[in-house]
């Protein structure tokens, strides 16, 4: 029994690992862990991701659930160097063409199928009801439940139609928060009735569409459970998600080293509490052999002490294996998807998503002032905003200045001026900086890559997302 118990504990652990984009191969300790029954691996931009790497995982454990955050737009792991080939959820919601969203999801699924990746931690099914939200924003399809629900379904159908599992996140909804759960525990103050009317419909819709996985959010929701965040709440995960909404797929945590839960308990206790709450897979964003074994041993000890039922652990491991089995059974679907490429769909969506005012007037290289380009912790720091690069390609004499946060504008000369901002609707200082620039240069053009707040009278273009294709679409419009 002891060996079986350790193997069950390993099956529910899904760690990420340190590595650089230049490194080759999985670390030896991770290969050993996979041979010992480790159920999954989470890939990040810091890893050298290719099909050979995934083959190494599967050589040790053919049923490995290989997972990745490939949302498109701001959150990409495969295209972090140049920016995503897809504009992201907010842009898709602005276009509001579910066929287009499904095509984008299908093409993302194809990218993952090429690498033999099992699970995409996408889409964000959060309703971005608070425009000040610091971590969801353009990762959401929009601010209303019906819009988010229909595009969540389309995205899920797209990814899973390519034979790759999708994951709706962050249950029961991270959209009505002003705190980033990477940094602290957010509280959602809405009533139970509002939650059911606003936040839950996209998850209900995803479950109805057969989504294979759901990710819990590290969110305190007093109307549902006043004492524990959703990831650690049996009331929210078992009674609501399993019981009321009827989800029977694999339930995975958001990364457990995020401060929202890490400030409350150690990793082993978080894992045990999450399993007791109804979670099946524990996502550990960054692990070592020692830290992985510590969590495994905490789970085993909890079973032996009677604080975690072995039946619950076995049920969780079975759901992990079921997801791996679903993926294994869809080889033909992935083969078909690989032969049916839709490479231009991302740029098509980015162009359709642009909202503009004024008249574009760029005929020579401008001075591009990047006012604020620091994004949430969910976005890899290396992800480029792309607008300057896109303009430089089309207008070789383009110059760039990156402002410090709330810093002073650079001096202007006779060159055209383009201000690149992100989430002007969220930041008063950004709006004030834009107003100062326009007072000096009324002809300045404003490009917003986030939730926009168009200034009166100025030429303005909103991409509704951060990606290579969004930047290219904006640059094309500016040169018309």
Automatic annotation (TrEMBL):
Gene3D superfamilies: Glycoside hydrolase, family 3, N-terminal domain. Pfam families: Glyco_hydro_3. It comes from the Bacteria. Transmembrane segments: none annotated. Keywords: Glycosidase, Hydrolase. GO terms for molecular function: hydrolase activity, hydrolyzing O-glycosyl compounds. One of its GO terms (biological process) is carbohydrate metabolic process. Residues 37-321 form the Glycoside hydrolase family 3 N-terminal domain. Belongs to the glycosyl hydrolase 3 family. This is Glycoside hydrolase family 3 protein. It comes from Nonomuraea deserti.
């Amino acid at each position: 029994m002891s060996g079986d118990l350790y193997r069950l504990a390993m099956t529910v652990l899904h760690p990420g690992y340190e590595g650089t984009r230049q490194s080759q191969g999985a670390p030896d300790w991770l290969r050993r862990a996979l041979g010992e029954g480790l159920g999954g691996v989470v890939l990040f931009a810091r890893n050298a991701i290719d099909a050979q790497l995934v083959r190494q995982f599967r050589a040790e454990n053919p049923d490995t659930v290989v997972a990745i955050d490939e949302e498109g737009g701001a959150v990409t792991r495969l295209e972090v160097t140049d920016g995503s080939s897809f504009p992201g959820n907010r842009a898709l919601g602005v276009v509001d063409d579910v066929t287009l969203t499904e095509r984008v999801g299908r093409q993302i699924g194809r990218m993952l199928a090429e690498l033999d990746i099992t699970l995409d931690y996408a889409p964000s099914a959060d309703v971005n009801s608070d425009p000040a939200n610091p971590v969801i924003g353009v990762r959401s399809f929009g601010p209303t439940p019906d819009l988010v629900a229909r595009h969540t379904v389309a995205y899920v159908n797209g990814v899973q139609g390519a034979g790759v599992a999708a994951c709706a996140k962050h249950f029961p909804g991270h959209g009505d928060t002003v705190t980033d759960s990477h940094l602290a525990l957010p509280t959602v103050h809405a009533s139970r009735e509002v939650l059911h009317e606003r936040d839950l419909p996209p998850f209900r819709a995803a479950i109805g569409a057969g989504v294979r996985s759901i990710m819990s959010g590290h969110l305190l929701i007093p109307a549902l459970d006043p004492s524990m965040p959703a990831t650690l709440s049996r009331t929210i995960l078992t009674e609501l998600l399993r019981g009321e909404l009827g989800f029977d797929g694999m339930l995975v945590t958001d990364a457990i080293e995020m401060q929202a839960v890490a400030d409350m308990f150690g990793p082993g206790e978080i894992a045990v509490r999450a399993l007791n709450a109804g979670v099946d897979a524990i996502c550990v964003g960054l692990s070592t052999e020692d830290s992985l074994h510590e969590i495994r041993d905490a789970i085993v000890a909890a079973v032996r002490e009677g604080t975690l039922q072995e039946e619950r652990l076995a049920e969780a491991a079975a759901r992990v294996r079921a997801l791996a089995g679903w993926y294994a059974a869809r080889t033909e679907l992935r083969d078909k998807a690989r032969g049916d490429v839709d490479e231009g769909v991302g740029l098509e969506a980015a162009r359709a998503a642009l909202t503009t005012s004024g008249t574009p007037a760029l005929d020579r290289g401008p001075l591009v002032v990047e006012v604020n380009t620091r994004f949430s912790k969910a976005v890899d720091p290396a992800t480029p905003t792309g607008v300057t690069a896109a303009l430089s390609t089309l207008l070789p004499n383009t110059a760039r200045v990156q402002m410090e946060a709330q810093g002073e504008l650079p001096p202007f000369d006779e060159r055209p001026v383009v201000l690149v901002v992100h989430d002007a609707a969220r930041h008063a200082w950004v709006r004030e900086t834009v107003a100062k620039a326009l007072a000096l240069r009324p002809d300045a053009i404003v490009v917003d890559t986030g939730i926009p707040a168009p200034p009166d009278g100025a030429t303005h273009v909103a991409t509704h997302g951060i990606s290579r294709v969004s930047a290219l679409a904006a640059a094309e419009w500016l040169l018309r």
